[in-house]
Amino acid sequence: MTGFDLIAPHLPVLTVVVPLIAGFLTPIIGWIDRRLPWYWVVLAMFVVLLIAGNNLVTVINSGTIQYKLGGWDPPFGIEYVIDLLNGFVCLIIAFIAFMVSIYSKESVKKEVPGKTTPFYSVFLLLITGLMGMTITGDIFNFYVFLEISSLTAYALIAMGDRGDGVVASFNYLIMGTVAASFILLGIGYLYAVTGTLNMADMQNILPGVYESKVVLAALAFFMVGFSIKVGLFPLHAWLPDAYTHAPSTASALIAGLMTKVGAYAMIRFMFGVFTPDFVIDMTQMTNILAWAAALAIIVGSVLAIAQSDIKRMLAYSSISQIGYILLGVGLANMIGMEGGLLHILNHALMKCALFLVAGAIFYKTGIRNLYQFKGLGKKMPVTTTVFLIAALSMIGVPGTVGFTSKWYLALGSVDAGQWIFVFVILLSSLLNIVYFWRIFDNIWFGHPHEIEHIKRDEAPLTMLVPMVILAVLCVFFGFFAYYPVHYVIEPLSEALLGLGGVP
Amino acid sequence: MSGVIDIVYAEYNYWIYVTLMMIGFYAMIAKKNLIKKVIGANIFQTAIFLFYISLSDVKGGTAPILVGGHGAEHAADVIYTNPVPHCLILTAIVVAVSTTAVALALIIRIYNEYGSIEEDVILAARRKLQPEFSEHARQKGVAEVSRQ
Q: Which of A177, A314, B97, B114 has its CA 20 to 30 A from that of A325?
């Protein structure tokens, strides 16, 4: 019996335990030598990435993994369930976090001087929270992990710009507390009706009590709570400030992951706790969601045009991109759902790359105002090329990932007979061109006589490597979207919409 | 009239929790003082805790501490209240305390930065420090570039 055989059955729980333990050990390691925490975080994230990859492969090959914590049987004990949906999201979290952790070395040293050890400690705890939210099969355990991820996110944001970062963090804290309390209340209502906390068990019991007003109230609380968490349009007030004023590394991490996990949770609660026929036909919740998402797509894009701070612009663009994911879910047909799920992956890649670029530019020049970007194309050719690829992908140019998911979403809208959503997607793509063109224009077509004097001054290698990898993946999945779609997204959408429940 | 009172009285615990929750929610939204916002958040969360606790009560039930023995033959001996919500709320209290701690720590830093915990004053100070209006920022950016 090798060592791996001993560990193998415990891999699901290790996805959460590894970053948790590593997070608490970080202060000790930082106390030994202040340069060590970076190596430690990269190592921990690499291990998590391997575990998450292994989990997803196991799920694809042999079906859902169930892990009983402490050996207690599911309805009573806490259960971790990995199926295609959260195996997929876990891998995205692990991969993005790994990339960001490599990138963080120089950026964190410059932006949070003297606090690198606490930063990395909180970084790992944030990953713990996100992983836990994704992987758990217990509804109250979910709430606890939600709060872990929120609290660590508040701390990370507060480490950002002097003054502004703290105010942004406080506003997020108030909004986040409302959201989490609503979710807690929803959990209480469902517990009152069903007497169980296990998601699968709850899904079996709930159809018998769908007439109950309490279940409706619970659904409403969940939807409002998660809408705040993902920053769906009317409830997005915390998002732009938080993304803008956080340290660059934290922005990339939070923008790439927090809202995606929120969207995952929304999907999980709609289709894994309630049943598809309840949210689609009985309450029309998906329909409401699709319209709210369409509104978010347009408003987010329009507001992004008005911004001059690149991070704030990307934050507003995030609001519109979240709309795409939720539009796909709200369409509630096979193709639309595939588009929405695929966009979770795509948006994580694109938005993370864009925020990393913004961070690299800020690291080298100290500029965030996009009207001052003139001549950057000569100064930082690699960084700006990454920006070009990721931005083209956001616009949805064929050959990039953004095109694939937008194509699926448009087809899904046609399939649902909702031509107005096709129009919304097209309009939003045009608006995307408007706000990204301003940056292209400044980066590459600045005044020539200024460009003559600019020397090449590229970001350090630890920053370049993750950015380039993300950009390459943006193109790779643009051409080979077949792999995620065939192995994960198709069976997943079928299971979510089809027979009810997650595989 | 008596009908309404009966309805309220029959489920008075829920009425209390909803009232408290709304008081907390109002404070979180409407109060300008940051400490008062945090107090509002605490009332809001405590109201939810009370909801859970009142949910777990069983008429005539005793505290869930084992009396006699356990197993099927003793099942009818004693009625216990449901211990699960208590455990959940124990966890939720810890979460609420940490949220409050983080919020207070943030308020201390806000106070050090702006010299006030009143939202109006902070907003005014931020406006003065950093004009967020994009047109202004744009012109500033253009001016700086042309100066170089």
A: A177
Please give the mean pLDDT across all residues of chain A. Answer: 86
Across A105-128, average pLDDT: 88
Q: What per-residue confidence (pLDDT) applies to A450? A: 57
CB distance A289 to A322 below 8 Å: no
ipTM over 0.90: no
Number of domains forming the structure of chain A: 1
Q: Which CATH number fits domain B2-117: 1.20.120, 1.10.287, 1.25.40, 1.10.150?
A: 1.10.287
Per-residue pLDDT tens over the stretch A184-219 = 999 999 998 888 888 888 888 888 888 888 889 999
In A, minimum Cα distance to B119 occurs at A167
Give the H or E element holding residue B80.
Answer: none
Is A212 part of any domain?
A: no
In this complex, which of B37, B55, B137 lies closest to A369 when CB atoms are compared? B137
Instruction: Give how far Cα A107 sits from Cα of A114, A305, A463, B19, Å.
Output: 13, 27, 8, 48
Which residues form the domain of A463?
284-503
Strand boundaries in A183-318, DSSP class E:
none
Contact B76, A216 (CB under 8 A): no
